[in-house]
Specification:
The chain is globular. It has one domain: Rossmann fold. 41% of the residues lie in helices and 12% in strands. It is of the alpha/beta class and 272 residues long.
Length: 272
């Protein structure tokens, strides 16, 4: 159980991150807002409570790594990295601007705190598998956390990575599926059905958990349990796309649509 003080701190951070996501996408008039808002609780739970990392030592060998496999949701990761100190928070004003290190998809060589360049859907989980195997061969004990989109896991490369992780018993790999049932073109079950999703991952040899992806205590408790598993872990996190802004919630149109000035002000007023 989280203490009242810790839970209040994390809830406040989630709201701060969502505020920054809205502001970045509105300012740039470009970016993926719905999925970023929906995954904010997961990102905050990892970076502010669960992961071993040090912004003052970004190359620390024993740090935990986070890989954004759904690479279009950079507003989420940039808002967190800026807040915890990997780069000045003022850099967020340059999001998607020419010459900025904060581009539309993560670019590892240029952005402090980014562990892998992603954007091609399915690539992040495969990358994490290779990195996790290398860490095991070196006798290192840190974890690799991966955030996948549910539209993304329709990609064949995801299931190749799933087989690889099982073969090499990558118990240092903990992945999430941001299960909001929406993707660019609409409802995921109309486009390429995924359910029943948990048995699919179990059949590939993964330990699987299903959680409320907006419940901080569930997220944290499940990750702590997952760290004791001897298999790769997939956490299916049920979320609302656009979470925190009522008129954006569960609406496919907000996958990659920037808010107008009026919509931005309305979003800030209703943000929770």
């Amino acid at each position: 159980m989280l203490t009242t003080e810790t839970k209040r701190f994390l809830v406040d951070k989630v709201k701060t991150v969502r505020h920054e996501i809205l502001t970045m996408v509105h300012r740039a008039q470009s970016g993926h807002i719905g999925g970023s808002l929906g995954a904010a609780d997961i990102g905050v739970a990892l970076y502010y409570h669960l992961m071993k990392h040090d912004p003052k030592r970004p190359g620390w060998a024993e740090r935990d790594r986070f890989i954004l496999s759904k690479g279009h949701c950079t507003p989420l990761i940039y808002s967190i990295l800026g807040d915890v100190g990997y780069f000045p928070k003022s850099d967020l004003t340059t999001f998607r601007r020419p010459g900025s290190h904060l581009q539309g998809h993560p670019f590892q060589p240029k952005t402090p705190g980014i562990e892998a360049s992603t954007g091609t859907l399915g690539l992040g989980l495969s990358t994490a598998c290779g990195m996790a195997l290398a860490a095991k061969l070196k006798g290192q004990s840190h974890y690799y956390y991966v955030l996948c989109g549910d539209g993304e896991i329709q990609e064949g490369q995801i299931w190749e990575a799933a087989m690889f992780a099982n073969k090499y018993k990558l118990n240092n790999l903990i992945a999430f599926v941001d299960r909001n049932y929406l993707q660019t073109d609409g409802y995921s079950e109309d486009i390429m059905p995924l359910d029943p999703l948990a048995p699919k991952w179990e059949s590939f040899g993964w330990e699987v958990y299903k959680i409320d992806g907006h419940d901080l205590e569930q997220i944290i408790g499940t990750v702590l349990e997952a760290q004791q598993c001897e298999k790769p872990v997939m956490i299916i996190a049920n979320t609302l796309k656009g979470k925190g802004v009522p008129f954006m919630e569960n609406a496919a149109e907000w996958h990659g649509k920037p808010p107008s000035d009026e919509e931005y002000q309305m979003a800030l007023q209703t943000l929770y």
